Amino acid sequence: MSGVLGSALISAVIVVALTAVVGHLLYQAPWPAHPLPALVTVLLAGLVFCVIGLAITPFIPNADAAPAVVNFTSLPILFISGFFFNFNNAVFEDIAKVFPIYWFKESMLTAFGTEPSSSGWNGQDLLVMLVWGVVGLAVTLRFFRWESRRV
């Protein structure tokens, strides 16, 4: 399991780095103003999202249903969290603040220098993601099984 998680984290860092390079070269997107907070945010978010993924596996009936369940839950959350465009809607923002992806986005914006911070760190963003990771780990430890459940 640690190998799979490690591989996912390495892949996340590589994808973020490639995206930053392509964004900078082709679209003149800025580099992170604070590279260390950006790296820590990506690693923490990667761990949290892996743990949440493990936490929901016991509730997915089979491998064929997994993509539908993941897309059904994640795409609406990504939309209301402002990943594709900003709704400027207080209700959507309040809902989005419940989920860790919103806090990941906010932490990355701080690391890139678009949110006010002299250091690039925002403790609240990281703390909310960490709480989600702890809750996800508790659910994973309680319900995750290597064997498929019998239907």
| Biggest pleated-sheet summary | none
How many individual domains? 1
Distance from N terminus to C terminus (CA atoms, Å) equals: 25 Å
- Helix/strand order: HHHHHH
Offer a concise description of the structure.
It contains six helices and no strands.
Structural key phrases:
single chain, 68% helix, 151 residues, 0% strand, mainly alpha
How does this model look, in words?
The longest helix is centred in the N-terminal third of the chain and has 26 residues, at 2-27. The model has no long low-confidence stretch (mean pLDDT 89). Helix 2 (35-56) packs parallel to helix 6. The chain has one domain. The protein contains six helices and no strands. With 151 residues, it is an all-alpha fold. The chain has helices at residues 2-27, 35-56, 66-80, 90-96, 100-111, 123-143. Helix content is 68%, strand content 0%. The protein is globular, with a radius of gyration of 17 Å.
